[in-house]
Write a structure and sequence with these properties.
The longest helix has 19 residues. The radius of gyration is 14 Å and the shape is flat. Helices cover 79% and strands 0% of the residues. The mean pLDDT is 82.
Amino acid sequence: MELNISAVLLLGVVLVVMIRGKSLKPGPAVVAVLFGFFLADTDTAPSINQFMTSVADMISGIE
């Protein structure tokens, strides 16, 4: 659960920085957020979550 909260926080900060830096306009940012929101409600959400968990495990295993 910590990874999900951290990933959401990190992506939110990146999104805000991109909007403030004028490299991403608010319209496409809203579309990206809504896409992620609706993607989380599909049947692919568990597969994406499993993939992200395995990537996080792989990264934490690097020493």
